[in-house]
Amino acid sequence: MPADQPSVADTVRSLVTQRLNLNGYSQDLRPDDNLWSLGMTSLTCLGLMLSIEDTFEIELPEEALKESTFRSINTISAAVESSRK
Amino acid sequence: MQDSRRSARTAGARTLVDLLERRFRDRPAATAIRTSARSWTYAELDRLSARLARRLVADDAGPIVGLIARHCPAALIGIVAILRSGAACLPMSPDDPPLRNRGVLDDVGCTRVLATAPVDWLPDAQLIDVTGPQTGHDSPDSPAATELPSPRPLDLAYALTTSGSTGRPKIVGVPHEGLLNLIIASFEDIDLIRTDDVMLWTTALTVDSTMHDCLMPLCFGACVAIADGGDLPANRILRTVRALGVTALEVPAAVLGPYGTSLLPRLAAAGVRLVITGGSQLDGPDLGSNDSLVVHNGYGPTEASVAATWYPCDASTPQWVPIGRPIRNVRTYVLDEELNPVPAGDTGQMYLAGAGLARGYLGHPGRTAASFLPDPFAERPGERMYATGDNVRLQPDGNYVYAGRIDDQIKISGYRVEIGEVEHNLRACRGVVDAAALLREDTPGGAAIVAYLVGERRPDELLTSQLGSWLPAPMIPRVYVWLDEMPLNRAGKIDRRALAKMLDPALPHPTSPA
Predict the structure, then answer these.
(1) Cross-referenced Pfam families, in alphabetical order (chain A) (predicted)?
(2) CB–CB of A40 and B446 under 8 A?
(3) pLDDT at B67 > cutoff 80
(4) A14 close to B (CB below 8 A)
């Protein structure tokens, strides 16, 4: 990946911010904040998953489709990294 | 030719039980229900449901039989059995508060309940058997000699609980006539089901779409696919579609609107030909741009048998998707406050009449009379029309367009909520003096009910747990805002506009971790 491209974590952060209505909170959002506690619902989680798959042009594997994968920016980034390998 | 062949399948049927019986006879070896673990043929569904139905008849189970279940084959076998016994099915969620479910059973005088798993608060609930005898003979203990009754068109087929603005839920009783009319129209007129379809059951048992989505395929010899349990079922939808060979499914408008552009091409690539949607206003771009997949948007309250109008999306479909035209035998009127028709194209309240009207709210003739009015436009005197509370307007092309509510009923993730019921229960919480609730699209995490409270401040967790003993989860506010006083408008009523501006929705709510 060229150096001027955003990191996986940065891209995930921007998708999370956008999909979960967290715009005003974005700068305070920490990589391990629990997104379910911040109000993510199964519906917004579906939207987040679809936008992650579209953006990174991946399909998350069956075993990644669970609540714990979408818990935080860190866990999502890890799932993206491992399905790009 | 095609049409006459299609109508031959339904001719002479009085209720959907007649159609089911025909399929049991002419398609015994076809797959009726499929999961990843196993499948059930029509012959097996016939045997299992007949056995349970005979038991209900022999026990004199009563006119309404409860069903507490999640998505699983047993639930579907239970629905079919209850209908074949001549009773109406009263579906209930095991996740709803026991207090609420018990109140519903008491309100309708229901004493017999089937379940797919043991129910803590109702040890008498009878568990549904999904294996049964492997031969064609009933086990010796079942009353095989009991004749199954044939339900009549005006007998109730199901009863469903909906939110009530006065603080208590309403139970809508729906006769067979309307459901059969919709199922026939779905097959003969709008191509919502084909005999070779595999329809995935996605809706909650307690919404009326389930009656359409699950029973319609079985009436025409098609297959109902049921996903395995587990967390995040929505995220698994593509995997499920591929694994079970699904060709048709319902996706709620709350999902399809925002995520359709990502979801539809993937569903089409996985072999889906039809997406049924509804439950709330469908609002999203490019929903009619797939060549191999069509989206049908259905509109209708529970009080009018699932869906009274349908709209097929095409390449010219606008983002605010129309709700379409009435199905056969359904009449639509757009009326002003004096019940006069508005000029074509003007906005007015939608009234529905003809086949499909519910009997009313069980046990509440007064509430029923307030919403089911005499129909002054009927050809036959004495018919009724249902006041939907929805504003609509008629487009020149003959399709209706939804134009908002006349009251403060809201839809959250497709779940119908009377704000009045939420506010009534908020006021009953300890410490709360006054309360108002609003649907806010801009809260962190996505759309949520926001409660504005005046009184003695208490932690959110206490409010949530107190409300949780009365209200289903979708009706519980996710954000609580305490105020020193409730803003009032000049008329002395709660100023909802002021409330809507009050919370900075970009801030995480107080229960989020520090």
Answers:
(1) PP-binding
(2) yes
(3) yes
(4) no
pLDDT of residue B12: 92
CB pair distance less than 8 Å for A65 and B235: yes
Q: Do B203 and B335 belong together in one domain?
A: no
> Is B508 domain-assigned?
no
Report the pLDDT averaged over residues A17-39.
85
Give burial (CB, 10 Å; 0-12/13-18/19+) of A56. middle
Q: What number of other Cβ atoms are within 10 A of residue B101's Cβ? A: 23
Enumerate the β-bridge partners of residue B445: none
Q: How far is B470 from chain A (nearest CA, A)?
A: 21
Q: Are the C-beta atoms of A49 and B266 separated by less than 8 Å? A: no
Please report whether residue B302 resides in a domain: no
Same domain, yes or no: B374 and B489: no
Please tell me whether residues B397 and B418 are part of one structural domain: no
Q: Which of B228, B232, B264, B412 to mutate to test the interface with A (most CBs of A within 10 A)?
A: B232
Residues B378 and B480 occupy one common structural domain? no
CA distance B504 to B43: 59
Domain region containing B62: 2-250
- For the sheet with B325-326, list strands across it: B39-41, B31-34, B223-225, B198-200, B248-250, B274-277, B294-299, B309-312, B325-326
Q: Give the H or E element holding residue A83.
A: helix A73-84
Residue B136 has pLDDT above 60, yes or no: no
Q: Is residue A7 in some structural domain?
A: no
pLDDT in tens, B223-266: 999 998 877 888 999 999 999 999 999 999 999 999 999 999 99
Residue B452 counted as domain residue: yes
- Extract long-range pairs of B429-433: CB within 8 Å, 24+ residues apart: B429/B458, B429/B463, B429/B466, B429/B467, B430/B458, B430/B462, B430/B466, B431/B455, B431/B456, B431/B457, B431/B458, B432/B456, B432/B463
* Region B404-410 average pLDDT: 92
